[in-house]
Design a protein that fits this description.
Residues 107-441 form the Peptidase A1 domain. Keywords: Aspartyl protease, Glycoprotein, Hydrolase, Protease, Secreted, Signal. It is found in: Secreted. One of its GO terms (cellular component) is extracellular region. This protein is an alpha+beta fold and 449 residues long. The protein has a domain at 2-60 and 102-256: Cathepsin D, subunit A, domain 1. Helices cover 13% and strands 33% of the residues. The protein has seven helices and 28 strands. It has helices spanning 23-28, 65-86, 165-169, 243-246, 248-251, 340-354, 393-396; strands at residues 2-10, 13-19, 44-50, 107-113, 118-125, 132-134, 158-159, 184-188, 194-206, 209-223, 232-235, 254-258, 271-275, 287-290, 301-302, 304-309, 312-313, 327-329, 336-338, 368-370, 380-384, 387-391, 397-401, 404-407, 409-411, 417-419, 427-432, 437-442. It has a six-stranded mixed β-barrel with strand order 4-5-11-6-10-9. The chain has a four-stranded antiparallel beta sheet with strand order 17-16-21-22. The longest helix has 22 residues, at 65-86.
Length: 449
């Protein structure tokens, strides 16, 4: 195998990617592979599995699509509350203050950890940093469909000390050190779910791409509302312990994804996530907006300057407060929450075109229409600094019940505004943490490899 050194290190141990060039090695791990990432100058790609699609281990075939969408809305509400509180915002909306459930992300990624590699199905979360998975021995472990990690079975596993850089980067999630001098972490959720364990390093396999010395949480005490099909969380936030930051020298701070439309979730297609050079976005119709540095560093903050319905500005109450970094982009939140300052102006502009909602609203939704003709629905443009991002009608309204379509935009009131994944469908969305920008390109994600 050829080794490619990377300048990042954990406790003085260099992290490096190994390209698989040895045929015997390829045969040895052939059965363990779940994906074949595309190697393009160091970049690689993986499937991003919608949790409600038939490819997902969380898929329940007894649920109708309407049921899945309603459940996604409830998760979205809880997640929005979680992100808002972490960012120091509050909300007067009682429904927005729902208990924060564990494993709130909407997409899954299949990776492997250890030598030999063990399959891990993680909930992908751009709103958290630490990647963790259940490990034996367990004081408490929730039921899990796939085998738990056994640290002693991996020749590349090593627990980190309390003095390690990785441990110090945990910040408030680091537990007091004990006589073992092992770094202990704890993450808690509003519904009293929690994960506690050791911070460790091991080899991570992204498809067939192995990356040595990635640090993660090896959870020995995990209980609450975690779902048995998921092994843990894969943190893709902007903080120091996230996978993105750890691979920074290899992927140059770049990742992107292309989310297929919600209506295609019942097909065999999956969304894609790309890392490194494979995440480059080029060509016509690419628009970019600056990433704003704010606390917590986990979140990806953008600046929303105004919104359009069709070609008409919907509000005159700009600039918002705060002027910069007033909205985050988050793939784990389903719906979009827009600032309350112009939410009602936005609704008025939409209803002027298509009329007022004429049906009894399904639980959780504000504006619904019976037998809505999407040809009558205007597009909505999010005018980020330097980038006009057009959200088409099919992303604005979804059929919640038979013949009843509801608006997927909600008021954030006093809470943090969020650009959710329904608004990002059929777009190639690229993050460049080195040049501090997010780019958007309209794309048919069902044809994007």
């Amino acid at each position: 195998m050829k080794k490619i050194n990377i300048t990042n290190s954990v406790d003085g141990i260099p992290i490096y990617i190994k390209r698989q060039e040895n045929q015997s090695t390829r045969v040895r791990y052939a059965k363990a592979r779940s994906a074949k990432p595309n190697h393009i100058n160091g970049g690689f790609s993986l499937d991003l599995i919608d949790r409600d699609s038939p490819q997902s281990p969380l898929y329940n075939p007894t649920y109708a699509q309407f049921d899945r969408l309603k459940k996604a809305l409830r998760r979205s509400t809880s997640r929005a509350s979680h992100l808002s509180k972490r960012a120091g915002f509050t909300s007067n909306n009682a429904s927005f203050n729902a208990n924060i459930s564990a494993g709130l992300g909407e997409y899954l990624m299949l990776i492997k950890i250890g030598t030999p590699p063990v399959k891990v199905v993680g909930v992908v979360d751009t709103g958290s940093d630490l990647t963790w998975a259940q490990c034996k021995p367990c004081v408490n472990c929730y039921k899990q469909a796939t085998p738990l990690l056994v640290p002693s079975d991996s020749s590349t596993y090593r627990a980190l000390s309390c003095q390690s850089k990785g441990c110090k980067a945990l910040d408030e999630n680091q537990l007091p050190c004990d006589s073992s001098n092992k770094c202990h972490y704890q993450l808690g959720y509003g519904d009293l779910s929690r994960t506690t364990g050791n911070l460790a390093v091991d080899t991570f396999w992204f498809g067939s791409t192995p990356v040595k010395n990635v640090f993660f949480g090896c959870g020995h005490d995990n209980e609450g509302s975690f779902e048995e099909a998921a092994s843990g969380i894969i943190g893709l936030g902007g903080g120091p312990v996230s996978i993105i930051k750890q691979l920074d020298s290899a992927i140059k701070g770049k990742f992107s994804y292309c989310l297929i439309p919600y209506s295609d979730n019942n097909t065999n297609q999956t969304s894609k996530i790309h890392f490194g050079t494979h995440a480059n976005i080029a060509g016509p119709n690419v628009v970019s907006t600056p990433l704003i540095k704010k606390d917590p560093s986990t979140f990806y903050y953008l600046t929303l300057e105004s919104m359009l319905v069709g070609k008409h500005n919907v509000s005159t109450q700009f600039p918002l407060s705060p002027k910069e970094g007033n909205i985050i982009i988050d793939s784990g939140t389903t719906v979009t929450y827009v600032p309350d300052e112009f939410y009602h102006d936005l609704i008025n502009a939409i209803t002027k075109v298509i009329g007022n909602g004429i049906v009894e609203r399904p639980s959780g939704f504000d504006y619904c229409y019976k037998n809505l003709n999407l040809d009558r629905v205007p597009s909505v443009t999010f005018r980020f600094t330097g980038a006009d991002v057009v959200v088409p009608p099919e992303n604005m309204f979804l059929e919640i019940e038979k013949g009843v379509s509801c608006l997927t935009l909600f008021s954030s009131e006093d809470a943090l505004a969020i650009f959710g994944n329904l608004s990002q469908r059929n777009m190639l969305v690229g993050y460049d943490l080195v040049n501090r920008k997010v780019s958007f390109k309209p794309t048919d994600c069902t044809k994007h490899a």
